[in-house]
Design goal:
By secondary structure, the protein is an alpha/beta fold. Helix content is 34%, strand content 17%. Strands 2-1-3-8-7-4-5-6 form an eight-stranded parallel sheet, sandwiched between helices. Helix 6 links the parallel strand 5 and strand 6. Helix 3 (73-92) packs parallel to helix 4 (107-114), helix 7 (198-204) packs across helix 8 (206-218) and helix 8 (206-218) runs parallel beside helix 9 (251-264). It starts with a strand and ends in a 6-residue tail after the last helix. The model has no long low-confidence stretch (mean pLDDT 93). It catalyses: L-arginine + H2O = urea + L-ornithine. Its cofactor is Mn(2+). Mn(2+) 2 binds at residue 126. Pathway: Nitrogen metabolism; urea cycle; L-ornithine and urea from L-arginine: step 1/1.
């Protein structure tokens, strides 16, 4: 039976400094997402975007769960609750949810929805570790906090809408890090999270690193969630992202990693986030996102 993939847009930019990532879902669709998925022999089912009011009509000065700074937290909560319900319903109906961000804060909703009735592991392909809290974040941008929220760290402890209790540190793997704040480094050092920096990819190769990340994430769980921030790639490959950092993976390395994801056979849900068409060149980052989604879902050269 062919796999069906339900495309869910989450057009937010509450969590980011630069405006424009709210247009990411439209840019990815326009770049030919449905055609790429069909080429991977999956059936695309697009349900449009969940409701996400524009930041211009929202109040950024919301009260965080504890002392600190977290902009647009009320709006982020509302979107993530809706997205979690949509992802969970998609899985119940037998489809694989493909979430199009928006900024990376939407992953709070996608992971919680995927983890609602299953023990899942997660591989986080990203330049950043996203483990800041309202107390440690230098910017207050929630797109740097989704993993802290999901794991219940710091101010997010016992925050029902943000926590994913079935996601354990030992089943979380971060791949491609090259921009980590000091509090995040300390947190990682005292955790059971598996971390693979760009230096390790340089030394060992992308397939060996991805295989180790997948092994850690899937050990003893039912299935896998993959969250792919397009800033994981080098800005020369993906210029249209919210927070570009030089020294990321190449085009072929990214495809090779997604092919390993497909080969593991446990993919349950997938995010594509932080595509910013305002900063892009000829929509090439959005087009790359469509190709990587297809590779993760089984598309091959032969």
């Amino acid at each position: 039976m062919e796999q069906s993939v339900r495309i869910i847009g989450a057009p937010t930019d509450y969590g980011a400094n630069r405006r424009g990532v709210d247009m990411g879902p439209s840019a990815i669709r326009y770049a030919g997402l449905a055609e790429q998925l069909e080429a991977a022999d999956v059936i695309p089912l697009d349900v449009g975007d969940i409701d996400a009011p524009r930041a211009e009509v929202c109040d950024p000065d919301t009260t965080p769960p504890a002392s600190g700074n977290a902009k647009f937290l009320n709006e982020t909560e509302a979107v993530c609750r809706r997205l979690a319900d949509e992802v969970a319903a998609t899985l119940t109906e037998g489809h694989l949810p493909l979430v199009l961000g928006g900024d990376h804060s939407v992953a709070i909703g996608s992971v919680r929805g995927s983890a609602r009735d299953a023990d899942i592991g997660t591989v986080w392909f990203d330049a950043h570790s996203d483990l800041n809290t309202p107390a440690t974040s230098p910017s207050g941008n929630v797109h740097g906090m989704p993993l802290a929220a999901l794991l219940g760290i710091g101010a997010f402890d016992a925050v029902e809408w943000a926590n994913a209790p079935s996601l354990r540190e030992e089943n979380l793997a971060l791949v491609g890090l090259r921009s980590v704040d000091e509090p995040e480094k300390e947190l990682i050092a005292n955790s059971e999270i598996s971390v693979f920096t760009m230096s390790e990819i340089d030394q060992r190769g992308i397939t060996a690193v991805t295989d180790d990340a997948l092994a850690a994430a899937t050990d003893g769980v039912d299935a896998l969630h993959v969250s792919l921030d397009l800033d994981w790639l080098d800005p020369g490959e993906a210029p249209g992202v919210g927070t570009p950092v030089r020294g990321g993976v190449s085009y072929r390395e990214a495809h090779a990693a997604m092919e390993r994801v497909a080969d593991c056979g446990l993919l349950r849900s997938l995010d594509l986030v932080e595509v910013n068409p305002v900063l892009d060149e000829s929509n090439e980052t959005a087009a790359l996102a469509t190709e990587l989604a297809a590779s993760a879902l089984g598309k091959r050269i032969l």
